[in-house]
Write a structure and sequence with these properties.
Number of strands: 10
Shape: globular
Order of helices and strands: EEEHEHEHEHEHHEHEHEHHHHH
Structural class: alpha/beta
Length: 298
């Protein structure tokens, strides 16, 4: 159940208020041909909180069908979140028949439980599924930080296999990488810190920005794994402006604009309260895409 490498938290394409299943399948076909190690559906970047149960089912089935057509073996996880354990457990039970390989589950938001409450929350979730769970620790969204002592206790539970680390505390992230058991994976979710996390021992990243320039993100990790620190730094210096650009406005609007402009999805549509990118950022993204064309062609 070990997870590592480059994972993409897939955007959810919409068209006229509904799921755009043709664009979903086009996206999955595209990433099936890329150096991607896994997909996560219906998470934050996938606007999961806006999806109905029926839409989640359609999303998973469309993605699985596209992978089968592409003849690509790739793990698919489903994003879940909620402020109460009983509701997340119901979601686990409801989705147990869906063809997903595991779950990315955010810390309970808004309620701000204690560390003991966080431990019991995730322990209860793990008891209610045989599938692997990756914890999503992102306190600037949820209002609560899962500390390292609690994380290391949870890492002892067999099907809690890793964390998407967005704790925004460099010391906490470093200490977790230093202290964690070998079989527990830390994947950064801070796109602009991908290189730094890898150099400190992270197993990979779950990166919204890797929707674009996917091969370049994977190449940075490959160079580090091969011990080419200088080459990895040079590759990252050439790439780092992309995640910075894509997080100038709330995710996933900039990514959807980019994917729409490059023909991977039919519409950059989002669901409220998410809004399209501003005209100014749209122009900057379009200019960035144009600058990349010679590099992509080469």
């Amino acid at each position: 159940m070990t997870i590592e490498g480059l994972w993409i938290p897939l955007i959810t394409p919409f068209r006229d208020g509904d799921l755009d299943e043709a664009s979903i399948q086009r996206l999955v076909h595209h990433y099936a041909a890329q150096p991607v190690d896994g997909l996560i559906l219906g998470a934050t970047t996938g606007e999961g909180l806006s999806l109905s149960d029926e839409e989640i089912d359609r999303l998973v089935l469309a993605a699985r069908a596209a992978l089968a057509e592409a003849k690509r073996q790739m793990p698919v996880y489903l994003g879940l979140s909620g402020g109460a354990a009983n509701k997340v457990i119901k979601a686990l039970h409801r989705t147990q028949m869906l063809p997903v390989d595991g779950y990315l589950i955010a810390c309970p938001y808004y309620v701000r439980p204690s560390q003991a409450g966080l431990y019991q929350h995730f322990a209860a979730l793990a008891e209610n599924t045989a599938r692997p769970i990756v914890i999503y620790n992102i306190p600037y969204r949820t209002g609560v930080n899962l500390g390292n002592e609690t994380m290391l206790r949870l890492a002892q539970i067999a099907n809690i296999v890793g964390v998407k680390d967005c704790c925004a505390d460099a010391g906490q992230s470093f200490d977790l990488l230093r202290l964690k058991p070998q079989e527990f994976s830390v994947l950064t979710g801070e796109d602009a810190l991908f290189y730094t996390a890898l150099t400190q021992g992270a197993e990979g990243g779950i990166l919204a920005s890797a929707h674009v320039e996917t091969e370049a993100f994977a190449h940075v990790r490959k160079l580090i794994r091969h011990g080419d620190q200088r080459g990895a730094l040079a590759a990252w210096q050439a790439l780092v402006d992309t995640p910075r650009l894509l997080f100038q406005e709330p995710n996933p609007a900039p990514i959807k604009h980019w994917l729409w402009r490059t023909g991977l999805i039919d519409s950059p549509e989002l669901r409220l309260p998410m809004l399209p990118v501003s005209d100014a950022l749209a122009q900057r993204i379009d200019q960035h895409i144009e600058r990349l064309k010679p590099r992509v062609a080469a």
